[in-house]
Amino acid sequence: MTFSMRDLDEALQGCGQKSGIEIWRIENFKPVTVPKESHGKFFTGDSYIVLKTAASRSGSLHHDIHYWLGKDSSQDEAGAVAIMTVELDSALGGRAVQYREVQGHETEKFLSYFKPCIIPQEGGVASGFNHVKPEKHQTRLYICKGKHVVRVPFARSTLNHDDVFILDTESKIFQFSGSNSSIQERAKALEVVQYIKDTYHDGKCDIAAVGK
Question: What pTM does this model have?
Answer without folding.
Answer: 0.82
